[in-house]
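Friendly challenge for the regulars: who can give me the C-alpha cells for this chain first? No prize, just bragging rights.
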Amino acid sequence: MWALNAGGYRRLGAAGSVAIAAGGWVAGTLPARDPWGLWVPHGTVVTVLGAVLAYVGLTVLVFAWWRYGRTGASTRDTLVTLVLWATPLALAPPLYSADVYSYIAQGAMVLEGHDVYSAGPSVLDPAGLGGDAAASVGGHWTDTPAPYGPFFLILARGVTWATGGTIVPAVLGMRLIAVGALVLIVWALRQLARDRGTSESGALWLGALNPLLLMHVVGGMHNDGLMIGLMLAGVALAMRGGWIAGGALVGLAMMVKSPAAMALLFIAVFVGRAATGPVVRRVAKGVAPGLVAVAVAVAAALLGGTGFGWLRTQSVAGTIHTALSATSDLGLGLGELLRLLVGADPDPVKAAVQNLGLGVALVLTARLAWRTVRVRPGPASEPDGSLSPVHALGLALLALVALSPMVQPWYLLWGMTVIAATAPYGRTGTVLTVLSAALVYETHPSGATPWYGFVLAGVACVIGTLLVRRDRKAPDGPDAQVLPDRTGPGYEPAVAAHRT
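First reply, four minutes later:
Bragging rights claimed.
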C-alpha cells in the first residue's frame, strides 16, 4: 500500500488545513455585518466552491491524521505537526459554528449590565456594543440565556472590552483563548501520559492532533476546549499530589461548562485512596479537592458580577433538539407515537426519556467510580482488570455524552481527550478514532448541519471500521510502524492493528 513517512503526512495534513482555511474565507461562519469588510459573502457560486474546497481539505487532513498515527513519530515531531496543522485554522474566519458570536455578545451583555442568565443577545442595541455579534448569532440562540459559567463570561467580557466588540479583533481575541486551551490540553496530555506510562506521541495524536478537535476548538472556538484544558490540567496536578491546585483548576473548568465537575469524583477516589489513616481521614482528604473547587466557583460567581444564575440555565441546551442525541430522538419518537395513538402531549414523554438517560449516565458513573476504589494509587492500575481513576473519568464522560439530551459532534472531545492520555490505542481509543474521522463531516463550514453531512459521516464510519478490521487481519502490513501501546496492566488491551 502507498505510504509516506511522518514528514510526508505532516505536509499532506498541512495542505488539507490550508484548504479548509481558504474555503472558510468564503464558506465559513461569516458574520452578518463586518465593518472592516474582511469577512463578507462572495455570492452563491463562490460560496459553494469554497465549501467543496473545505470538504476536500478536511478529507485530506483526516487521511493524513489517520496515517500519521501509524508512523511511530516522536513527541517533538508530533508537536511540530500540530503547530503546522493548527496555524491555518487559527488565521481563518470562524469555522463550523456561530457560537463565538454568542460569546462576544454575552461579553457585551455583561459589560452593559444585562443578566445573561435570563435574556439572550437580542437585548443588545443593534448599533451598540456587541450589536454586530448579536446579529450574527445562530437563530435559536438569539433569545437563549447563557448556559456558561461566570469564569468564561469574565473572559468573554474582557475580550469584548478590549476590542470594543468589533467583529474581527473580537473573534481573534476569542481564538487566542482557544489556542491557549489547546496549549493547556497538550501540556496536560503529556503529563498524564508520562505518569500513566502511555506513549506521549500517541496521546497527542488522538487527543490534540485530532481533526475533530482542531476544527471545533481552533476553527470553531468552542469553549469546550477551555473546559477540557482546565479539567485535564487539574486532574494531572491532582494525580501528582497537587490536589489544591488541581481542585482549583477543575473549579475554573466547571465555571466554563458544568460537565467538568465529574472530574472531582474521580480525583476524590484517587486522593482518598492515597491518604493514610482511618477511613474518616481518607474520606475527608478525598472531599477536600471538591471543597476547593466549590470555593473557586463561588469566588468566580461573586467576582464576575454575574451571580449564580448559571445554576438555573444548565437545562437550556436540553430544550434544543439535536439529531445526535439518542435519548432525545427516542423520546421524540415515543412522544409522537403516543400522540398519534392516544392524543397525548409528546413533550413530557420526551423529557422523561431524556431524564432517564441522564439517570442511567449517573448510575454508570457511580459504577465506574466504584471500580476505581479497588485500584492501588500509582501510575498503573491493578492487574485484575480494574480501572484507573483517569481512564474511568474518560469513560464516564463518554457515557454522559452518549446519554445527554443534547449532543454535538465536539462533545465527544470531553471523554476522548482523557482516554487519549490513558489508552489511545485501546479498544475504546480505536472506536473514538473512527468516530472522530466520521463526525468531522456532520457540520458544514458555515455551521449548518445538512443532510449530506450525516451521509458523509456514515460513509466515513463504515470506511474507518473496514480499515480497522483489515489492519487486524494484516499483522505484517504497513501499519507495523505504529507506536507501541504502553498503557500498562489493567488498562484496555490494545487493538492488534495498532501493535503489529
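The radius of gyration is 22 Å. The longest helix spans residues 167-196. Your move, everyone else.
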